[in-house]
């Protein structure tokens, strides 16, 4: 009997056209047999059966890190190298459950500048019964060293790696199980949120449902804005707000706005409606720990205002951080710009030796936007092709995000609705997460299963109006709360435990 190759089961090409291959398989292929099989632009480096609890985190000497994977079920681990161009070197992993596959594929995205396989996301997907896939986006290391002299690698990072990974993963799933995935989902946050939006925009056939969190979709403008804000914050030692004062500012904001939802719980449900003037904290005389000097007040106002052209006042980036985010300001307002932003500006826009103190507004914001020729931009609001084929887009963003302004998701949500109109009615939902920082963390209920939400949405056709989310201390759930479909917000009904979701209702602001 002639051995089946992967090429033999593909009825359509696997290039960058966005077309999804039609799989015509004849019989399942065992795990180890996948090694060495033929697939366009792909070299399968290894295929091995991993017993239950037998996965070792690559390159980790940390026993605790490896132990976190000890509860994994048995799966087939496929490692591949994708080369859609001669200069591409995209590493991909596909994990295939040995038993209990739910006949669905879940793809994970990346944070920051990529460069690593997100193993925790792969593990979570396999535990839930999914075939899972992830990529390093075409380079190694969370920096921008790969950019110089390698335009194809920047394209891979920008959007191509996720698509090529998805096409190859679907083919491997079909061959291994002799069945195509009935549903395919993508879920990620930050850079992964940008990747999620790019998939819906460029490759509407790749996924049935997509979860896009805290999406940095205007990435180059964001890099420039963060650097410019950091330079302003550090314009003079007297203007720098010491980290020790962040809790004081945060507590003052909570005192002003926390109770608007009917309960004092350390979380501002709707920061957009919080009217706190930081000037109320101005020191009457000398600098003290419980007040801000006038230059520090100006710094705090800059943190909560859009980045503007100093000459015309025109907004260059929404850039503001909302009430409740104060404890995380150090990520942008520290002694130097955030590492990712500085990497992007130095190695995509300028040169590695560029002195960020010399940044000019608006010129260098415009220069940053032009530098990548749109590769890291995911702002196309026309998702009609994705919605037309039944695709669902779940957007979410932490109201207390101190890195990617919540305005990014609010703006994109409005743009998509304006662009596609009624087509978005049951295909698009936005959930703003009170008290959540960048993708996770903070005093809010930041834990919820995004993929389960989009899976139920795709299967039932009913858009979610609320999602029960949890706050955890260690491994203990100590609060639940409904997240509400924007613009609704959760309000306490007036009786019962304020730590239980059942005592809150979603209602209009």
Which terms summarize this structure?
509 residues; nine-stranded mixed beta sheet; 15 strands; disordered N terminus; 28% helix; 3 domains; Rossmann fold; alpha/beta
Explain what the structure shows.
- It is built from 13 helices and 15 strands.
- By secondary structure, it is of the alpha/beta class.
- The chain has three domains: 1-181, no CATH class; 184-217 and 378-463, Rossmann fold; 220-371, no CATH class.
- The strands form four sheets. It has a nine-stranded mixed beta sheet with strand order 1-2-3-5-4-6-7-10-11, sandwiched between helices. Strands 8-9 form a two-stranded antiparallel ribbon. The protein has a two-stranded antiparallel sheet with strand order 12-13.
- Helix 12 (407-420) links the parallel strand 10 (392-398) and strand 11.
- Helix 5 (219-233) crosses helix 9 (339-349) and helix 5 runs antiparallel to helix 10 (363-371).
- It is globular and about 80 Å long.
């Amino acid at each position: 009997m002639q051995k089946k190759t992967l090429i033999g089961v593909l009825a359509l090409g696997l290039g960058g056209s966005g077309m999804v291959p039609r799989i015509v398989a004849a019989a399942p292929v065992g795990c180890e047999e996948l090694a060495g099989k033929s697939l366009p632009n792909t070299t399968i480096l290894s295929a091995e059966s991993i017993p239950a609890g037998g996965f070792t985190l690559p390159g980790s000497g940390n026993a605790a890190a490896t132990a976190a994977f000890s509860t994994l079920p048995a799966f087939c681990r496929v490692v591949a190298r994708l080369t859609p161009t001669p200069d591409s070197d995209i590493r991909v992993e596909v994990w295939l459950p040995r038993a209990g596959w739910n006949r669905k594929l879940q793809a994970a995205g990346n944070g920051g500048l990529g460069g690593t396989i997100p193993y925790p996301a792969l593990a979570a997907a396999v535990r839930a019964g999914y075939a899972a896939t992830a990529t390093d986006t075409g380079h190694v290391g969370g920096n921008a060293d790969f950019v110089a002299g390698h335009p194809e690698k920047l394209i891979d990072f920008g959007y191509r790696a996720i698509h090529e990974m998805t096409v190859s993963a679907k083919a491997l799933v079909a061959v291994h199980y002799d069945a195509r995935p009935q549903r395919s989902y993508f879920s990620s946050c930050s850079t992964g949120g940008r990747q999620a939006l790019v998939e819906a925009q460029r490759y509407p056939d790749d996924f049935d449902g997509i979860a896009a969190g805290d999406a940095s979709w205007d990435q180059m403008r964001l890099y420039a804005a963060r650097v410019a804000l950091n330079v302003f914050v550090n314009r003079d030692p007297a203007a720098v707000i010491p980290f020790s004062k962040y809790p004081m500012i945060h507590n003052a904001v909570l005192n002003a706005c926390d109770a608007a939802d009917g309960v004092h719980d350390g979380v501002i449900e709707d920061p957009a409606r919080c009217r706190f003037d930081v000037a109320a904290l101005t020191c009457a005389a000398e600098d003290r720990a419980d007040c801000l000097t006038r230059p520090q007040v100006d710094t705090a106002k800059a943190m909560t205002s859009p980045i503007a052209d100093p000459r015309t006042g025109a907004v260059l980036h929404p850039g503001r951080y909302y009430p409740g985010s104060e404890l995380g300001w150090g990520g942008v307002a520290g002694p130097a710009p955030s590492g990712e932003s500085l990497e992007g500006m130095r190695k995509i826009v300028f040169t590695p030796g560029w002195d960020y103190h010399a940044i000019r507004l608006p010129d260098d914001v415009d220069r940053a936007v032009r530098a990548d020729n749109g590769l890291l931009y995911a702002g196309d609001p026309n998702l009609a092709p994705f919605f037309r084929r039944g695709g669902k887009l779940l957007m979410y963003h932490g109201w207390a995000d101190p890195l990617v302004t919540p305005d990014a998701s609010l703006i994109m949500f409005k743009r998509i609705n304006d662009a596609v109109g009624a087509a978005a009615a049951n295909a698009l939902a936005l959930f703003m997460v009170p008290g959540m920082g960048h993708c996770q963390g903070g005093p809010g209920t930041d834990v919820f299963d995004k993929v389960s939400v989009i899976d139920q949405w795709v299967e039932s056709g009913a858009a979610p109006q609320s999602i029960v989310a949890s706050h955890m201390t260690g491994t203990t759930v100590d609060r639940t709360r409904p997240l509400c479909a924007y613009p609704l917000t959760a309000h306490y009904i007036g009786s019962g435990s304020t730590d239980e979701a059942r005592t809150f209702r979603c209602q209009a602001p």
